[in-house]
Specification:
eight-stranded antiparallel sheet
């Protein structure tokens, strides 16, 4: 307890530096949203005015309601309402190759403390040494997209452990012609496309549209699991990241597609724009 107290005190007295990248338009949010992230990601983030952002060569960002330049205030993050809501954006994966991962996700931030990174981050795999529920709405590259629900044990912001594997589905398993960098697929990932997520106590769905064509699938077929996950939908923080390379095994995401080659994370980029939330 003494060590934990010191850790919390250290975060309170020596806050980690955040970077406020600027205002971000989210139609339907009812308030100004800001894009923030750890200062180490500053070189990876490029704002597209207030309409969107690009992650270049890596990086991680969060949606916030305060344009803070440090992580001393855990209430800075936007608690996005999810239960029965649609959350959409335009996505450009044309420069995210095999074994790279362009991710969008909701997590039960803030954690109980600043954690190793000082930014109150938590997830279902104990990153930043803190557990919390995680809703992976998008783990993707040009070859496929997957989504996963991760529930946890505990509550009220204090979680004892989580289901690391979660309840997952992958576009390739639903339809191998749904999503790929070719015209034969419903969604040709060499071009931008619209993505919309919908979730409630019975389902978590991704819907995509491009040039008049549509595709969708549910992430989890276990009704009980969906119901338990929905207990976290009162408010979760949206984050986005781009990662891979360096020998990281991404076969769980795209191995089934037959794509090959090491992720060139330094040469990769993903663009998110046109955010909207509605019920």
């Amino acid at each position: 307890k003494f060590a934990l107290g010191l850790a919390v005190l250290a975060v309170a007295t020596c806050p980690s530096w955040a970077k406020n990248f600027g205002p971000l338009d989210v139609d339907g949010a009812g308030q100004q949203i800001y894009l923030v992230g750890p200062d180490w990601a500053a070189g990876n983030v490029q704002m597209q005015g207030s309409s969107g952002f690009t992650l270049n060569g890596g990086g991680r960002v969060y949606f916030a309601v305060k344009p803070n330049e440090d992580f001393s205030d855990p209430s800075m993050y936007w608690q996005t309402p999810l239960d029965g809501w649609h959350f959409s954006y335009t996505l450009d994966l044309s420069n995210v190759g095999c074994h790279c991962n362009a991710a969008g996700y909701f997590i039960g931030m803030p954690g109980p403390a600043g954690g190793d990174g000082g930014d109150w981050y938590c997830d279902a795999n104990f990153v930043n040494s803190q557990w919390c529920p995680e809703y992976d709405t998008l783990e993707s590259n040009k070859y496929t997209v997957a989504g996963t629900l991760h529930t946890c044990n505990g509550g009220n912001g204090y979680w004892t452990d989580c289901d690391r594997g979660g309840c997952q589905n992958n576009a390739f398993y639903v339809d191998s012609n749904m999503f790929c960098p070719e015209d034969r697929c419903t969604i040709n990932t060499n071009k931008p496309f619209l993505v919309s997520h919908y979730q409630d106590g019975s389902q978590a769905n991704i819907w995509m549209q491009q040039d008049g064509r549509e595709a969708s699938f549910d992430f989890c077929s276990d009704g009980g699991y969906c119901s338990k996950m929905a207990q976290s939908y009162g408010g979760m923080v949206f984050g986005a990241s781009l990662w891979g390379g360096g020998g990281i095994n991404m076969d769980w995401l795209d191995g089934m597609t037959g794509c090959w080659g090491e992720c060139n994370i330094g040469g990769s980029s993903v663009k998110f724009s046109g955010f909207n939330i509605w019920k």
